[in-house]
Amino acid sequence: MGAARTSVRQRRAVPWVVLALWLAALVLAGPLAGKFSGIQQNRSVDYLPDSADSTQVARIQDRLPGGEATDLILVYHRDGGLTAADRSRAAAQVAEIGTAYPLTGKPRAVPSKDGSTLMYPVSSTRPGQDDKARDAFVDGVRDIADGGAGLSVEVGGPGGLQTDMSKVFGSIDGTLLYATLGVVTALLILIYRSPFLWLVPLAVAGVAAGMAMAAGYGLHEAFGVTVTGQSGGVMTVLVLGAGTDYALLLISRYREELRRHERPYEAMRAALKGCGPAVLASSGTVAAGLLCLLAADLNSSRGMGPVGMVGVLAALVAMTTLLPALLVLLGRRVFWPLIPAFGSEPRVRRSLFAAMGTSATRRPVVVLAGGAVLLGALALGALNLPGGLKQEDSFTAKPESISASQTLARAYPGRSSQPITVIAPAGKADAVLAEARTTAGVAQASAGRSGSGWTEISVYATAAPESKGETRTIEALRAGLDDTYGTYVGGPSAQQLDLADSQARDREVVVPLVLAAVFVILVGLLRSLVAPLMLLVAVVAVWGAALGIGGLVFGPVLGFHGTDPGLGLLSFVFLVALGVDYGIFLMHRMREESLAGAEPRAAALTALRTTGGVIASAGVVLAATFAVLTTLPLVGLVELGFVIAVGVLLDTFLVRTYLVTTASVLLERRVWWPGRLSRAPEPVRAERQPETV
């Protein structure tokens, strides 16, 4: 009796110990989490690989006299032509800027041929200049540059673009966190229909997000992992979306076990034992898929791997330790008013997913073929995806720097307003300058700062920024100068070119790694080769269909003029890793039923009936959290959020419900080949009775 009482006391103490450990961890991690947004790097060059020409240009520019340069272009424009007063006003304002800030040289006006526009290139360099100093300089110039009646003044150029981009990314963290929490809150209230229960997983998800931010900061400080606004935003969505999914699965199973076990502690142990392997495998596939990004050449993608991984692991640990502890401490009353009583039977009602499964398995070949044709037809929409995304098209709302570049493109059609930067060895600068001026597509070239053994040369192309003509000019400069003189060719347009090239290489490397990693985890969980292959084919088909729907929506409906070069790779990694989650939930329950002796068809339908509701709820929550990305002002994040949200919904309501279930019924026991479940059980022989005489 004494031993039994001691055991009960120990069981009661476990949740309190877990809660105390989490409180201690929060005290330690809280200050680190607050620093997470401060380590984000959002310059274009921060996304590029170290080996890229444009990356080398940016690093050398940092070492030149004055440090990193902030290059601006002031654009004065009046429809119908500038007046003498306009020109005087512009000259006075530029002089005031020169008095207020240390400029690298006296800005000179460049008038357009039609007399409607005046362009003033302005550059400032200061030792130790950082993003805050740059933004202060840009904002100060914008305050001074003021138009009048009919006279517009816009401040653009690379520095203006970086400041506008920085402000957008600076607003993402808070906007994304609160919007995602709001969406998850609304969905949990609808799912649980309880005034209290929704608070528990939501609070735990918030704790997991804080821990993930602290871990992300630690990765940056300890290993130099690049954290961008994009990876930080995706991490937040992953923590809240995936974490809520794990909570839904665990709470659903816990509710079942409370009807079978009198004590909440025992019910939670059974729930963790039942769904724990599926949750572990689910988080493992996402973490493994993200870690494959470490093989990427692109700095931003390589950094997103470990940043996203710590988000998923934080969600896993919180939902399998803190959430169970809180639920056990709160007891059955947390489910009020629908409290599952011990020994009771759940209310029997017609299951939507049971009906869907039955309808799908009546004519399985027709359903499977029809689903495959539908997904294939949707995938064809990917052929309609717009081309590469230019910097001027990367915002959903047009900031001042983009408006300035568009004004320049109209007023100066014969030359680019954005320089191509050539960094040449100081001893070869004159020869490089002469060679650059004779390169096809070059309108103008001039030498600038020198120092640290290098000279900066600004080259202006005859073609518009980020056009095919300018791309040919950049390639010609690299071909003619790099090997001969040891130069580096960079600048904003060259960065976009290097970005696209790196993304193409990364797709070829990372995609096979993701498929292999996920396949190995599925084989280990399901003890089969056929079931993992079936799930991988399904998620790849979903990815293609989701991209196809994006092709039908981005240009024709949303008016986007380009596709982010990272969309294909990142959407593949997330849809394969996250999409397999729901296959794991379904197939793991199907395997449980098969191990219990159910026939293949019955096992498939039972698995769908028992997990269909929670998978649907989890899918809606995950899709909604990624859909929050579509409210942000960056086209790349809107496209990524849209494709993943659509893919998750396709996976949840079409592929898992109909196609995977139908394929499992058609394959019967072969779905578990070569595991022991693939073999029919031996018939039970009746014992031979002794003969009576």
TrEMBL record:
InterPro entries named in the record: MMPL_dom, Mycobact_MmpL, SSD
Membrane-traversing stretches: 175-192, 199-219, 231-251, 271-296, 308-330, 365-385, 509-526, 533-554, 566-586, 607-629, 641-667
Keywords from the named record: Cell membrane, Membrane, Transmembrane, Transmembrane helix
Topology in the lipid bilayer: Multi-pass membrane protein
Major subcellular location class: membrane
Domain (SSD) ranges: 211-329
Region spans: Disordered: 112-131
Coiled coil location: none
Cellular localisation: Cell membrane
Top-rank lineage group of the source organism: Bacteria
Entry-linked Gene3D superfamilies: Multidrug efflux transporter AcrB transmembrane domain
Pfam families assigned to the protein according to its UniProt record, in alphabetical order: MMPL
Family per record: Belongs to the resistance-nodulation-cell division (RND) (TC 2.A.6) family. MmpL subfamily.
Name this polypeptide is given: MMPL family transporter
